[in-house]
């Protein structure tokens, strides 16, 4: 398995409980695809640098995960069609980190 950093932005109109449910769903998505979530760090609600899908703010979340390379495409596919996550970035970490 390879180490990845997953950063995603959750819709700003959600309350804290709904944001936590969205985080739990993303964690479950990773685990369903054979991965492991090492750490999740919610950054809170922040203003975006530019408008994305008519949104000016969002709840930022960063997660360190381990995932098989063959499963990355499936995780990204599901995140793209998510109704609560409107932007994500999955980056592979250098070896030894």
Describe, in plain words, how this protein is organized in 3D.
This protein has two helices and four strands; from the N terminus they run βαββαβ. The protein has one domain (2-92): Alpha-Beta Plaits (2-Layer Sandwich). The model has no long low-confidence stretch (mean pLDDT 94). The chain is of the alpha+beta class. It has helices at residues 16-32, 72-80, and strands at residues 2-10, 36-52, 55-67, 85-92. It has a four-stranded antiparallel β-sheet, with helices on one face.
Search tags:
4 strands, 27% helix, globular, alpha+beta, 4-stranded antiparallel β-sheet, 2 helices, Alpha-Beta Plaits, 97 residues
Instruction: Give the quaternary arrangement of the chains.
Output: single chain
The H/E string reads EHEEHE
Q: Give the integer mean of the pLDDT values.
A: 94
Strand order of the largest sheet: 2-3-1-4
**C-alpha geometry:** globular
Helix content bin = 25-40%
Q: What is the makeup of the main sheet?
A: 4 strands, antiparallel
CATH class: Alpha Beta
CATH superfamily: Ribosomal protein S6/Translation elongation factor EF1B
Derived structural class = alpha+beta
In terms of per-residue confidence, which ranges show pLDDT below 50 for 5 or more consecutive residues? Answer: none
List the domain count as a whole number.
1
The third-level CATH topology is Alpha-Beta Plaits
CATH architecture: 2-Layer Sandwich
Beta strands, count:
4
Radius of gyration: 13 Å
What is the count of helical runs?
Answer: 2
Q: Please indicate the percent range of residues in DSSP E strands (runs of 2 or more).
A: over 45%
N-to-C terminal Cα separation, in Å?
13 Å
């Amino acid at each position: 398995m390879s180490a990845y950093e997953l950063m995603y932005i959750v819709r700003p109109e959600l309350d804290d409980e709904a944001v936590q449910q969205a985080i739990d769903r993303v964690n479950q998505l990773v685990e369903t695809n054979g991965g492991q979530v090492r750490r999740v760090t919610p950054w809170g609600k922040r203003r975006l640098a530019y408008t994305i899908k008519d949104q000016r703010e969002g709840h930022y979340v960063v997660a360190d995960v381990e995932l098989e390379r063959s499963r990355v495409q499936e995780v990204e596919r599901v995140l793209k069609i998510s109704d609560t996550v409107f932007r994500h970035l999955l980056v592979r970490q250098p070896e030894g980190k």
